């Protein structure tokens, strides 16, 4: 199964833009009117019998029924006769607005709301560690390269930006050069987002539970490696991953990140700080050896399993690889719902 999200960019003419703006304006008015009507009605019913405000109260007759989706739609039909501007907008669009106002007031017919499925933490699990060397390392030993779209296109961006600054301020050519810069920025952002979605789907193919670190993104972005951190866009990736997991019915949870690279996933002992250049985790206690990011991902996975209440068999007590051991202690795999 492959579900990808497509985004299309409209390129409307000026006349079309004007029409869209006009529609939006009418929608805004209709929405605000409907919301206001509801709020007034609610406020008119709020005043306690023995304590009216000295200043003012909303007064709506006691026998007037509360505004509903149907009554507001009827009012809209009436209003269209008097306000021709409303007719420009497709009637279904305006009705949808009334519906949107209706939702928070909890008057929806039960069929319209679909309850979100409860995803239970069972089945195969994965831990993920995001880093600079690899964009993501997975506890099953896989690593994904960092695409660094920004770095690749950075020199191109620089030369384009230089061209902008060389052009006369306010000139047509400057505007054209600026447009090229914007397009490149957009391209970089799209490349990144696309990669994040692909990776997220890929991970969902592998597991029923995914655990990731709770990153201190603000702290990272301020640090020495800030540019690379922002370029990698981990925050966006984790957001996309959680969305993707929700859609695919995969359990997703973040776990504390502190010290994931200083713990041995096999014997769970502190192994001390690693230098950034030290790419391999080698435990001085049990001799476990693997890629440092993969080891961190395995620690994340163990923490996640612990957090959702699975007893984790210490790897030192079993033989084979970490994944086999972890699977041993999991409950029977349940087919998780695929949406
Ligand atoms: Zn160890």
TrEMBL record:
Which Pfam families does the protein's record reference?
A: Cas12f1-like_TNB, HTH_OrfB_IS605, OrfB_IS605
UniProt keyword list: DNA recombination, DNA-binding, Metal-binding, Transposition, Zinc
This entry's Gene Ontology molecular function terms read: DNA binding; metal ion binding
Q: Does the keyword Signal apply?
A: no
InterPro entries recorded: Cas12f1-like_TNB (IPR010095), Transposase (IPR001959), Transposase_put_HTH (IPR021027)
Record-annotated Transposase putative helix-turn-helix domain positions: 2-46
Q: Where is the Probable transposase IS891/IS1136/IS1341 domain?
A: 117-221
Residue span, Cas12f1-like TNB domain: 234-298
Single GO BP term:
transposition
Keyword presence, Metal-binding:
yes
Superkingdom of the source species: Bacteria
Q: Which family does it belong to?
A: In the C-terminal section; belongs to the transposase 35 family.
Q: What is this protein called?
A: Putative transposase DNA-binding domain family
């Amino acid at each position: 199964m492959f579900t990808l999200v497509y985004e299309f960019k409209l390129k409307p003419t000026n006349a079309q833009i004007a029409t869209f703006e006009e529609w939006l304006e009418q929608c805004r008015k209709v929405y605000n009117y409907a919301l206001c009507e509801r709020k007034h009605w609610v406020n008119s019913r709020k005043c306690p019998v023995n304590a009216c405000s000295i200043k003012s109260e909303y007064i709506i007759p006691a026998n007037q029924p509360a505004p509903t989706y149907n009554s507001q739609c009827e009012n809209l039909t009436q209003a269209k006769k008097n306000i021709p501007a409303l007719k420009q907008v497709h009637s279904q669009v305006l009705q949808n607005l009334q519906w949107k106002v209706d939702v928070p007031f909890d008057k929806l017919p039960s069929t319209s709301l679909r309850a979100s499925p409860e995803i239970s933490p069972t089945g195969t699990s994965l831990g993920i560690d995001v880093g600079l060397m690899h964009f993501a390392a997975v506890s099953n030993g896989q690593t994904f390269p960092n695409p660094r779209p920004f770095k690749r296109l950075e020199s191109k961006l620089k030369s384009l930006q230089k061209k902008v600054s060389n052009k006369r301020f306010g000139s047509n050519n400057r505007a054209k050069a600026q447009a090229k810069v914007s397009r490149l920025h957009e391209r970089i952002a799209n490349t990144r987002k696309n990669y994040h979605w692909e990776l997220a789907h890929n991970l969902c193919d592998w597991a029923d539970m995914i655990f990731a670190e709770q990153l201190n993104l603000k702290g990272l972005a301020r640090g020495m490696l800030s540019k690379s951190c922002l370029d990698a866009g981990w925050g966006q990736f984790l957001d996309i991953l959680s969305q993707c997991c929700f859609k695919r019915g995969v359990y997703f949870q973040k776990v504390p990140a502190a010290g994931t690279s200083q713990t041995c996933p096999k014997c769970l002992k502190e192994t001390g700080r690693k230098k950034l250049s030290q790419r391999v985790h080698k435990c001085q206690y049990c001799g476990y050896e693997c890629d440092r990011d993969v080891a961190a991902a395995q620690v994340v996975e163990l923490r996640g399993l612990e957090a959702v209440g699975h007893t984790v068999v210490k790897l030192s007590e079993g033989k084979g690889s970490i994944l086999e051991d972890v699977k041993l202690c999991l409950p029977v795999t349940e087919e998780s719902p695929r949406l």
